[in-house]
């Protein structure tokens, strides 16, 4: 038996997550492969129904994400660290930004940098506008789709995960983001379902991107003359090479392979962009970037809330671009958010949001301006509409674009290399994230699990590509974005709830009842601190300590010609001292029995005071002006009298000031 166990493959997979997820992934993939037309038609019908009838849900969800993150930046919560208060960032700023950028946008920048602006520019819906206005709007819409809104979607998931993982010390898992709502239930079936959703969404997103991207990479290799055609056999080779390198990178760890490739890629992308700036319409690009950025800022809120309800002729464009983008970014959010969270330990919330929203957005704006505006400029001035004519051929458009620039062989080679590395960085980080989800963020996963996820990605991508089922898989991914948008809204609620508790914990001072403590009676104080009271004990405290204190003070007030009354009430049991007035409000100081819930963590802790129940009782003060009371269980009779006098002195001081008349007196009847 022991010998068998020694050769049994070690695994850290959570069976409650992995087995149902694999069944669903294989089922959907097989249906999409064997019945591509039927599945694509059925899913497309569902997608169109959601986009047409529930597009406002996507709009409001994304809007809330943006406003929520902006609120956190300027709130008191912005200085909270993603980790312990003394935690330092694991990665340099450049490495951190490179990795989150490569995971977040990656191959999409190469695929859409020319094709999207050209598509907007040449779309028949806007052909009634002048060419200048169409060029400006093409840049504006591209900025809108690739800017702050896209990164806010990633930011909400990434921030929630990083906060609950590093601050609350929970697993790096989507289920952890529900801790304020579900508590320990996140470790059960509900948590498994949440992580299954994340695992399937991540797998489908990467699979479809890998499948469609291979087509563009194949087209580039054909354009360079390296391959002779786009036959399926060549695509098998491309996928095999990409996945082999991706698996090697993933198994070497985030600190090595993923980090290195991300840095190489960002450097290569910057060099390619600078080449286009230098040898393209340089002056036009600088001017159009400034104007486009201002146009975007000016139209920011108009774009954010615009549902095109009064422009029915533009609705098809709106559904096929803006809503599709919001759904696509949301569907990718589990994967990208998990990866961003993994590399963001030690950053403050303000630093995290600022970097995630601003830096990638600005880079995207520069990138899309350089490539998109250059393409439009060439189309207007040199190509005579040749680029607009092939706007629907996104796979070949980037390579066609470089025909209007010098050194075509070098630039096209660099483009192919960057596309290739983008594929690898997306795949290796995806492998890492999927293993993290499937193991509840285990840090000791065997390498064969990473190989398993990489091989499954490659095989299913090729099967679906060959059978024509990738479109169905992509459509289903977009459909699942709607329920996940609702889940993300709950992330915001839970994160805000967690931050409120966090801030209250670290900002909380000493108890009000400790203000006058000295070294006297310290043994009695200690005994009271470690003794948790039931209701009868607090009622006895009110009877033997609070009521005698009030009575003694009342007798002394009579000597000052001030009439005070002491009253005892039941349900809840309370004792109250009242000084009545005619012209001003009455002075009231009362103490009542107040129930209080105790954390299970403290009850189950062995080296802590013994507690028999989750509910204890404390003597809590209350006042005539409805201010929040406080616990006085540690007060002696003398200290209670002193506290009443403090409150009475405050009452008289406020009553002396004319500016407080509206608060201390009864307004005349009109």
TrEMBL record:
It is a multi-pass membrane protein. The chain crosses the membrane at residues 12-35, 55-74, 94-114, 143-166, 193-212, 232-254, 266-297, 317-340, 352-378, 405-427, 448-467, 473-493. GO terms for molecular function: transmembrane transporter activity. PROSITE patterns: BCCT. It is found in: Cell membrane. Keywords: Cell membrane, Membrane, Transmembrane, Transmembrane helix, Transport. One of its GO terms (cellular component) is plasma membrane. The keyword Transmembrane helix applies. The keyword Membrane applies. Its main location: membrane. Belongs to the BCCT transporter (TC 2.A.15) family. NCBIfam families: bcct. This is Choline/glycine/proline betaine transport protein. The lineage of its organism: Bacteria, Pseudomonadati, Bacteroidota, Sphingobacteriia, Sphingobacteriales.
């Amino acid at each position: 038996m022991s010998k068998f166990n020694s050769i049994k493959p070690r695994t850290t997979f959570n069976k409650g997550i992995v087995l149902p997820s694999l069944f669903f992934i294989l089922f959907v993939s097989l249906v999409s492969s064997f019945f591509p037309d039927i599945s694509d038609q059925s899913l497309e019908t569902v997608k169109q129904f959601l986009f047409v009838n529930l597009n406002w849900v996507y709009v409001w969800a994304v809007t809330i994400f943006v406003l929520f993150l902006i609120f956190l930046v300027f709130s008191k919560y912005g200085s909270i660290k993603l980790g312990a208060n003394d935690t330092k960032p694991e990665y340099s700023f450049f490495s951190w930004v490179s990795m989150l950028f490569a995971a977040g946008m990656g191959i999409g920048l190469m695929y859409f940098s020319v094709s999207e602006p050209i598509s907007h520019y040449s779309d028949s819906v806007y052909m009634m506008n002048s060419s200048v206005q169409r060029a400006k709007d093409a840049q504006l819409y591209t900025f809108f789709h690739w800017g702050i809104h896209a990164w806010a979607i990633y930011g909400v998931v990434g921030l929630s995960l990083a906060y609950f993982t590093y601050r609350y010390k929970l697993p790096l898992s989507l289920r952890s983001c529900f801790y304020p709502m579900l508590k320990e239930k996140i470790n059960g079936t509900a948590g498994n379902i949440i992580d299954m959703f994340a695992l399937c969404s991540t797998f489908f997103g990467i699979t479809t991107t890998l499948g469609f991207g291979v087509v563009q990479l194949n087209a580039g290799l054909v354009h360079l003359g390296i391959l002779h055609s786009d036959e399926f056999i060549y695509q098998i080779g491309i996928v095999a090479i990409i996945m082999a390198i991706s698996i090697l990178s993933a198994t070497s760890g985030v600190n090595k392979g993923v980090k290195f490739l991300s840095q190489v890629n960002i450097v290569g992308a910057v060099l390619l962009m600078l080449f286009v700036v230098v040898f393209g319409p340089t002056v036009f690009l600088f001017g159009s970037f400034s104007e486009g950025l201002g146009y975007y800022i000016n139209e920011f809120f108009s774009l954010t809330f615009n549902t095109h309800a009064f422009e029915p002729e533009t609705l098809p464009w709106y559904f096929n671009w803006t809503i599709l983008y919001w759904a696509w970014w949301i569907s990718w959010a589990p994967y990208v958010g998990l990866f961003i969270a993994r590399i963001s330990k030690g950053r403050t919330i303000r630093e995290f949001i600022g970097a995630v929203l601003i830096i990638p957005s600005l880079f995207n704006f520069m990138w899309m301006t350089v490539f998109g505006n250059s393409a439009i400029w060439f189309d207007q001035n040199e190509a005579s509409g040749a680029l607009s004519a092939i706007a629907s051929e996104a796979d070949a458009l980037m390579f066609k674009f470089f025909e209007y620039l010098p050194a075509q062989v070098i630039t096209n080679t660099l483009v192919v290399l960057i596309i290739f590395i983008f594929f690898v960085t997306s795949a290796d980080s995806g492998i890492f994230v999927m293993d993290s989800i499937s193991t509840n963020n285990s840090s000791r996963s065997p390498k064969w699990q990473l190989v398993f996820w990489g091989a499954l990605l490659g095989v299913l991508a090729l099967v679906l590509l060959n059978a024509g089922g990738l479109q169905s898989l992509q459509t289903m991914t977009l459909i699942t974005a709607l329920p996940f948008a609702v889940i993300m809204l709950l992330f915001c609620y839970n994160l805000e709830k967690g931050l409120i508790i966090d801030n209250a914990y670290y900002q909380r001072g000493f108890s009000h009842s400790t203000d006058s403590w000295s070294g006297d009676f310290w043994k009695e104080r200690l005994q009271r601190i470690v003794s948790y009271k039931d209701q009868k004990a607090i009622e006895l405290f009110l009877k033997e300590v609070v009521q005698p204190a009030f009575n003694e003070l009342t007798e002394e007030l009579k000597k000052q010609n001030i009439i005070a009354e002491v009253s005892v009430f039941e349900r809840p049991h309370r004792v109250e001292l009242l000084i009545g007035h005619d012209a001003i409000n009455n002075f009231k100081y009362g103490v009542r029995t107040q129930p209080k819930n105790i954390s299970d963590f403290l009850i189950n802790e062995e080296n802590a005071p013994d507690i028999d129940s989750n509910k204890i009782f404390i003597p809590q003060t209350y006042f005539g002006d409805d201010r929040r009371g406080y616990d006085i269980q540690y007060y002696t009779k003398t200290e209670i009298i002193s506290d009443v006098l403090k409150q009475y002195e405050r009452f008289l001081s406020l009553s002396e000031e004319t500016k407080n008349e509206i608060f201390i007196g009864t307004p005349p009847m009109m």
